[in-house]
Amino acid sequence: MASTRRGTPCPSMGSKPRGETALIDRHGAVPLYHQIYLQLRDEILSGQRPFGSALPTEQELSALFDVSRITARRVLSELAQHHYVERKRRLGTRVTFKSPAKPIEANIDQAVDSLLAFGQKTSVSVVEVSTDTPSPTIASALHLPPNQQVIRAVRIRHLDGEPLGYIVSYVPADLANVISAASLAKAPILRLLENAGRKAKHAEQTISAIEADPRIAQALAIEPRAALLRISRTVYDKDDRPFLLTFAHYRSDKFHIRIDLHDPEGTSPARAPKASPVVSASVE
């Protein structure tokens, strides 16, 4: 099952460079400033905006979301009041939040095998594959120099005909001959990149809970602000170069992650903590 559309923007995305900042619902009950606050907060909590990184200025936020400077100022003030950022005159706004969680190490080969197996159990619709100018956050995560473009691929994974996950991936533009709507309809992106010689050596992954924005809610056939499981993953090659950045958003009623834990004193590489995606077989 695969439907494709190349180079067509997602609904209401506009022509601005597209990162992972979500849309806002101008007709909903939640104030605009709070919607933007929640989006930026989720990006900070998930590590997408790491400690020390700069946030957009009031003027940039105003242009990005098409809101007033007063609204943009309130967003940044709210983030500062909740100790996610620090605002300094002439220096801008920077993230001050540090996650207290200690990373859990797992075997990369087992993780890749699990992801590929998951891909075989679900079908995919390719929504869009396009060449984009990345946001500063995306460019930084992929260690890209200024003005270098990326390939942006949007897919929807289905289980038994029902939408399960909304996945957005970014790869450097020099992989354009590898990642296309046609190739993604046939194989998972990790498999395509591995066949092209970009094998995953290690990866960094963050799992968080967020609320669905209007775009993702429509794609997954759920209510706006419904709970989502968001998985942010950066994959590196043997030279420690990041070559794949993925943001996967899964319906919380149909997807969960199981982790097998073992006694650390007897842990060997073969028995390292292992995480596997588990999909609910029932359609509710």
Explain this structure.
By secondary structure, the chain is α+β, with helices and mostly antiparallel strands. It has two domains: 32-95, Winged helix-like DNA-binding domain superfamily/Winged helix DNA-binding domain (Arc Repressor Mutant, subunit A), CATH 1.10.10; 108-279, Chorismate lyase-like (Chorismate lyase). It is 26% helix and 29% strand. It contains eight helices and ten strands. It has helices spanning 32-45, 58-65, 69-81, 108-121, 136-141, 181-184, 189-195, 214-220; strands spanning 85-88, 92-95, 123-132, 150-159, 162-172, 202-211, 227-236, 242-251, 255-260, 274-279. Strands 3-4-5-8-7-6 form a six-stranded antiparallel sheet. It has a two-stranded antiparallel sheet with strand order 1-2. A two-stranded antiparallel sheet has the order 9-10. Helix 1 crosses helix 3 (69-81). The radius of gyration is 19 Å and the shape is globular. The two termini are 22 Å apart. The model is unreliable at 1-22 and 278-284 (pLDDT under 50).
Summarize this entry quickly.
It contains eight helices and ten strands.
CATH-assigned fold name of the largest domain: Chorismate lyase
**Structural class given helices, strands, pairing?**
alpha+beta
Fourth-tier CATH superfamily name of the largest domain: Chorismate lyase-like
* Continuous helix count: 8
Span between termini: 22 Å
Helicity, in percent? Answer: 25-40%
How many individual domains?
2
Tell how many strands the DSSP assignment holds.
10
